Amino acid sequence: MNPGPLGRDLVFTAKEIREAFEDAMERAGGSLGTWIVLNAISDEGIVSHSVLATRAHVDGATITYHVDRAEKLGLVQREADPNDRRVKHLRLTPEGERVYKDLWAAASAFQAQVMAGITDAEQARLQRTLAKIRANLAAPPGEAPASPPGRATARRS
Asked: What is the pLDDT of residue 75?
């Protein structure tokens, strides 16, 4: 039996994961957009909009929308860069830190649900495989892909 195109399975699985993750974030009192902003700032500390957009893999307009919303909710604060007035840095407020902890707990529980029954070795292999797929997609058509980040040489999987 032919299982069908892998790309279709990846797209459908990604859609299901995204929808379930959005539901988990909403149940925890947030949203996917809030998670993206708070998680990136928490990982990086005080960041600029451009760094945040790059870290979150979204365009500038999208990240601005999410940051505006988080700021209105009192979760982040903008601060002017002392060396460049055009640049605003973002940091979590105490309320943002509290909400982030709640969302982190929800994200951790979600990951445990998604990975239930999948061994650590299988998870590591999945991460390597997904990194290879992203490298393949980043390569210009017809060119060999670059090695995934953290991999100097290709490994057999």
From this structure: 96
